[in-house]
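User: I'm writing a tutorial on reading structure tokens. Could you give me a worked example: one chain, its sequence, then its tokens, then a sentence or two explaining what the tokens reveal?
Assistant: Sure. Here is the example chain.
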Amino acid sequence: MNVQKLAKLAEKGEIRGLELLSMEGGFYIARVKLDHVEMTLLDDNGKTLHLRSSTHLRDLLQDVPPFPCVLVQQCAHDEMCGTREGAVGALRIPFSLGATL
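And here are its predicted structure tokens:
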């Protein structure tokens, strides 16, 4: 899904949420949730859109109606050190597409 398609779906109220996934290497990718499917946000060439930050995403979607967003970061320290027993879940932080103060 590209930004234009996301904007059209957001205007219709069909976007259920967006996960901004923090990736190794210092970039982010966006996963858009619809009712029964999740799709990666793509660039104009049909490749996965690499974002620099949540601010980059806000700038990109500044004219799009708001919908729920979550920043998802894995806990690399726990994975490397093995300090917890059992599964290690991702850190999930809700954020808004609106301007920050």
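What the tokens reveal: Strands lie at 17-23, 27-33, 38-40, 69-73, 91-95. The longest helix spans residues 3-11.
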